[in-house]
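## tool: complex_structure
## caller: assistant
## args:
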Amino acid sequence: MASHAKIAQQFARQLFSLSVEDGTVSAEKVGGILEYVEKHKVANPVMVLKAYRRLIAIELAKGIALVDHAGAINSATLAAIEAAMTRKYGRTVKATARPNKELLAGVRVQVGDDIYESSVAGQLAALASSV
Amino acid sequence: MSTVLEQIEQQIAKLSSKAVKKNTGNIRTVADGVAKIDGLSDVMYNEMVQFPGGAIGIALNLEEDEVGCVILGDVSQLKEGDEVTTTGRLLSVPVGMELLGRTVDALGQPVDGKGPIDSKVAYPVEKIAPGIIVRKSVSQPLFTGIMAIDSMIPIGRGQRELIIGDRGTGKTTITIDTIINQAKINKVGLASGDKSFRPVYSIYVAIGQKNSNVVRTISALEAAGALEYTVIVAAPAGDNPANQYIAPYSGAAIGEWFMENGMDALIVYDDLSKHAVAYRQISLILKRPSGREAYPGDVFYLHSRLLERAARLDGKGSLTALPIIETLAGDVSAYIPTNVISITDGQIFLETDLFNQGIRPAVSVGLSVSRVGSAAQIKATKQVGGKLKGELAQFRELAAFAQFGSDLDAKTKAQLDRGGRIVELFKQPAFAPLPIELQVAVLFAMQKGFFEPVEIKKIVAAAASLKAFFTTRKDALLAEVRTKAALDKDLEAKLLAACEEWKSSYTA
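## result:
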């Protein structure tokens, strides 16, 4: 079972590398790969597709700046965040706003597994842990 | 009051001024104290990571798309999907004099109910061992208080001496005796006001032991007045394997503080067999490839990097290590015992047969060795006990040979008789270490033949009588032996006279 999972993981990695074009995930290539998996008898297709999905999701998350905010946020701010993150990561990053009242005030930006915390809730948590 | 408010406002302003970057991940699986985490792309090897609920972890496996972490602390609240954050720090434990007399867990947190530890310094748990240049050769003795060891297998400050044997052969007892002896020496030395006196502080690391055993050890140390010079690091059998894995390194960090600050320390790892088992468990859960006896490939490095941290530093202090290894059916050629034997500077091998015969401590003279040798002995011990190891080894050989025949020449009979007396003389009860000056006096009496007229069966009683005689009536002479540390003609004459006096008063 463990070796099946390993083989599926390796195959998913190969499929993933075929899905990337110029550093970004190509929707066209992903479509082609899904078609290939459907038509051909791939061993453990569910396992392979789950691993493939995970890798694609991680890659897509690197191109999205998820902006959690409490209160209103204008499009200029979103554009500024987009520009700053695109410059920082050297790839196109698109900002998506998501209201989150738990932040109390301020914003929290997540790009991939990096989080930029500038919310009051985050600062209070930092203050609490430093006392 | 306003200053306090200003302080808080400044802190808030400092926090408000910039966005804080965190690198995060999510728990994918969590089992048996090990978590597999998605994300954490910036994490470094051995970096401390923060789990929700205050638990911390150490990143041990950095793979292409996941990170394997051992979790230190309560894992029961963790679940799949929980957010994990990098800290950018290595795991550290509090160190310093404040820890003396305390019992702490693998993270240096008190578990003895005596309140928080007010330590101002923290040392990293994992640290590269001192290099060649900063080291100094081992030449100062560390007295265990056990006559068989101090006279035949001397241990020096900065040495690593393995204590190996089957279960129930008295391995822990030897280390506790040694700790008690350090405390006794410390008390005498500190009371004397001698500025050149260097106390030895002890650290006892309990790995995978029963809580009842740990309590017994603490009680023994407390009863002997040794706890005030000792730090106990406890990672009992009930702790998760990650805590058991990290505990000896935490102990080493505590010991290093003494060494770095010009003091001498002794650390006991009780025991490294259980430590290897805990590490094997972690490695198997992390799906690292397993090798001989299912241990991972780096099990040698696990112990070598730990024991290399024991050293004597030039211009600073020393850290002496007494690791313990438990063998199965006396098999010293198993994987972990051979590894640790090759790392250490000698071993004290304890035999079940000797133990069952009532020879305690059950030190096997033939298999025990100290590679530092007489460099770590005072001259007085060399003078009275220099030939003992050879004599005892010869005795064992002759005793084995003598089993096959009854016709023995007078010389062989005399050698057997003398060997039997030495064996009896080395018998010592638990938790009663002997000061080195008393050991010298007893061995001197033996060398001069004062025990020859005594029946072998009564040697233990005669030795006890001699010890009582010296401690109660010849205190000044013992102090002279202690301070001179060598026997000149004058001192020898005094010792001889004292032994004669004892002989005249002793009745078997």
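## assistant note: Chain A touches chain B at residues 2, 13, 54-55, 58, 109-110, 112-118, 122-123, 126-127, 130 (CB under 8 Å). The mean pLDDT of chain A is 88. Handing back to user.
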